[in-house]
Design the sequence.
């Protein structure tokens, strides 16, 4: 089975600075951790009886633990009233720190426990690579290895692989990513492509002809090598203004616009290969091809068998991928 998780937002933990004096004091007072849990419940409920009901203990036990915590800290935390308790200034300050800290600890424990019971292989890549190269092949992998369950995380943001629990990643990069097990999978080459539906203004025989055509431009996160200005400069031509064409903010949108005949796209294999094969797009003959960066395969696991099997299969798929006919 294949699970797909599409993510558009990256969550990254802030850098943690450890105060060794604070950590030393914490180790000396860990016996008060249950008291802090009781304090958090009492501060939230505003009543020792209701806190006791939530925690499954007696009201006397709650009152005793609060008293012991106040003795340890040397200051009262609650004003005791007839039917309720209210936080003192010190109590409010402590609650503001303790409540989010305990919630974070609980969330961390739940996350670790969930991952420990999850045997799925988590794989991440970009939306374009997943759509145009990986997903069409995954059915074949599932048929070969039905015992391996995949969780595909699709994101155009560079996820923190360790924090997100990613086992295998496919990253597009100019240099090999800084991981122990990294393999170059595929190298992208970009060239002009056009749909049979496109109504050209010129014969489309020379690079300068494209100066008079509708060009589909990429904007946003894409590096200069993927854009028309770089291609024109490589052909010793002055790039036209983006305003003269159509600007797209994703690679997928650009390819779909090209297939619909809205303009000429600067696209690359391996992602464009299926559309060249089925005739939805054609490469302009005699136009320059530019080599770009690699798609790198990253295995973050400590030699997990399912990760090794999946990476070996991906490598075989990449080696069998069609290559372009560079002029």
Sequence:
């Amino acid at each position: 089975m294949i699970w797909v998780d599409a993510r558009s937002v990256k969550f990254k933990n802030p850098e943690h600075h450890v105060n060794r004096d604070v950590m030393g004091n914490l180790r000396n007072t860990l016996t008060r951790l249950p008291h802090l849990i009781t304090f958090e419940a009492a501060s939230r409920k505003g009543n020792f009886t209701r806190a006791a009901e939530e925690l499954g203990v007696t009201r006397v036990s709650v009152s005793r633990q609060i008293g012991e915590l106040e003795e340890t800290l040397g200051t009262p935390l609650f004003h005791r009233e007839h039917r309720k308790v209210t936080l003192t200034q010190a109590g409010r300050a402590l609650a503001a720190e303790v409540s989010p800290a305990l919630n974070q600890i609980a969330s961390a424990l739940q996350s670790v426990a969930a991952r420990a019971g999850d045997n799925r292989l988590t794989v991440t890549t970009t939306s374009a690579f997943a759509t145009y190269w990986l997903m069409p092949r995954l059915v074949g992998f599932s048929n070969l290895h039905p015992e391996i369950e995949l969780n595909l995380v699709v994101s155009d943001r560079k996820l923190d692989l360790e924090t997100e629990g990613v086992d295998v990643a496919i990253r597009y990069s100019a240099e090999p990513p800084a991981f122990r097990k990294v393999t170059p999978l595929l190298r992208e080459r970009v060239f002009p492509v056009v749909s049979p539906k496109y109504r050209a203004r010129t014969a489309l025989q020379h690079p300068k002809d494209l100066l008079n055509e509708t060009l589909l431009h990429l904007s946003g996160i894409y590096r200069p090598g993927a854009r028309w200005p770089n291609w024109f400069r490589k052909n010793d031509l002055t790039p036209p203004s983006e305003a003269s064409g159509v600007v797209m903010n994703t690679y997928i949108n650009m390819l779909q616009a090209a297939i619909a005949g809205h303009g000429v796209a600067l696209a690359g294999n391996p992602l464009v290969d299926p559309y060249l094969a089925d005739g939805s797009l054609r490469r302009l003959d005699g136009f320059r091809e530019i080599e770009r960066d690699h798609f790198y395969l990253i295995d973050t696991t400590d030699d997990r068998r399912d990760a090794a099997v999946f990476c070996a299969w991906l490598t075989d798929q990449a080696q069998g991928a069609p290559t372009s006919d560079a002029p």
